[in-house]
Amino acid sequence: MTPKALEGVKVLEYADFVTGPYCTKLLADLGAAVIKIEIPGGGDPSRRRGPFPGDIPDRERSGLFLYLNTNKRSITLDPAVPMGRKIFTALVEWADILVEDHAPGAMEAMGISYDALRGFNPKLVMTSITPFGQTGPCSGDKAYGLNISHGAGSGYLTPVAEAEDDREPIKAGGFFDHCCSGLSAATATLLAFYRRKLSGDGEHIDISEQEASLAYDRVEVGIFANENFIVRRIHSGIGVALAPCRDGHIVFAATGNPLHWESLMAMMDHPVWAKEERFTDQASRFKYAREINDHLSKWTVNHTTEDLYRRLAQAGIPVGIVRSQSDLVEKDAQLKHREFFTGIDHPAAGELTYASAAYRFSETPWRLDRPAPTLGQHNDEVYGGILGYSREQQVKLRQMGIL
Description:
Layout: E1 10-14, H1 19-29, E2 33-38, H2 63-68, E3 72-76, H3 82-94, E4 97-100, H4 106-109, H5 114-117, E5 125-130, H6 145-151, H7 176-199, E6 203-208, H8 209-215, H9 218-227, E7 243-245, E8 248-252, H10 258-267, H11 282-287, H12 289-300, H13 305-314, E9 319-321, H14 325-330, H15 333-337, E10 341-346, E11 350-355, H16 379-386, H17 391-399
Parallel strand pairs: 1-2, 1-4, 2-3, 4-5, 5-6
Antiparallel strand pairs: 7-8, 8-9, 10-11
Helix pairs in contact: 1-7, 7-8
């Protein structure tokens, strides 16, 4: 079987919920050997977060956990107790990379700070993920995705369907901000690992989720920093609002290029309203965007989404169908052609379908080799194989509550 891009890289994950696990998922799916540490008994809290099949809670069938932890191994361990700390440091000696998401000072309190751990592994790359970073007046504060989104100012950038700039802020859907932070963490981790390959030195990476999310909106923040102007939730132009069709909605942009406008008018047989003076130049069309969108909606509602998509695309006009999850999985011909969705069998949840990756490597292909692990599934493999503990020693550690 063709080796994957990160084959041979060893990663220890001491993180839960979304950001840290998403960071290590990206590494695991590229071939890194990721050992996920979960607290004995309950495991990663995302195991208790749905969706669950049939809405029946089951720690081995959480859709969130199953997605975030593909291609990983799971062990149970409590590093907060002395024996657990000893095992943890032994795993750090094995690892190239450690990803953790505990509050500033928490790792130090357990005796496993970066300074302590590099005594066991001077080449260790350690990535620490927190809501607001390791330093500063808010460094000890807790936050979830909702807090991060608004704390980074992105709630005011979500587009609106009408030209109203006083609408309330809203966060992006799902776990967008957590995943942005996880992507930033994975990128930084790989860069530090690449530097280690060149220099032989380890490194400690401080990831602030607020800053990671903010970095995706840097243009708007820069506008205020330099021009004292706040970008708010404004309508972004003609044809960008949701346009109703017979069977759903479509989104197309007809203002960025005058040729797009001319092509659209030709497609609409040059309607009488478009010849009004206020609609004849680009600047004026932006000013009267709401009226134009009303006219466009009266035209689009008489067509199907697929029909309009094909016609607009052939005319070179940027266009997209507003897809639901079911549309993406079952109907999207482009995703089917590129085999974006892939399946794998899980021992508790059965056959599962996953989104794959947004990239294609010609020599080191992305692969889904193993489903997300059950809690502690790889205890014997790790404790017995990597660390050399006997079955009897593992039983004793389990009885002590360490595993």
